[in-house]
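Figure 6 in text form: structure in, sequence out.
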């Protein structure tokens, strides 16, 4: 049986290769999955199918090229924390973003029973918002002030 850290690594690798069996393998049938408040897909979802329906499918529908680059994984006694950066482009606005993220995994009997995402949701929200016509948008940016490679407007 793989270690908890190895199971999380296999989960992330499954996303990169499209191996959905690997993505779902570590999820307990009653997993509680928490997406950060302020995220376009914020909420608490219970069970692997709810996670697929409300998180994984929504990520593909809302963001073009959505990716997670994991920088570090730390594991200790039933908990695994992954630190990294999300990137992608909002499908509706065409705005690219990069946002720091932490994933906290809790394990029992070799399966993930709880997942919590902690993310810079202000960056995700800014990428998803359409600028107001003729005036500053919700982030206080003038129309067109977003540079293609920036996730916030220049101040």
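Output sequence:
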């Amino acid at each position: 049986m793989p270690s908890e850290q190895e199971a999380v690594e296999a989960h992330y690798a499954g996303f990169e290769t499209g191996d959905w069996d690997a993505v779902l393998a570590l999820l307990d049938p009653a997993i509680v999955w928490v997406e950060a408040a302020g995220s376009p897909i914020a909420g608490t979802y219970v069970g692997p199918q709810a996670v697929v329906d409300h998180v994984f499918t929504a990520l593909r529908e809302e963001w073009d090229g959505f990716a997670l680059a994991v920088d570090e994984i730390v594991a200790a006694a039933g908990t695994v924390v992954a630190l990294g950066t999300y990137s992608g482009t909002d499908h509706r606005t065409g705005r690219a973003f990069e946002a720091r993220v932490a994933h906290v995994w809790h394990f029992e009997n070799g399966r993930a029973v709880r997942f919590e995402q902690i993310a810079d949701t202000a960056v995700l929200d800014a990428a998803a918002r359409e600028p107001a016509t003729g005036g500053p948008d919700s982030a206080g940016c003038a129309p067109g002030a977003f540079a293609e490679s920036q996730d916030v407007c220049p101040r």
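Caption detail: Strands lie at 27-35, 43-46, 63-76, 79-90, 96-108, 111-119.
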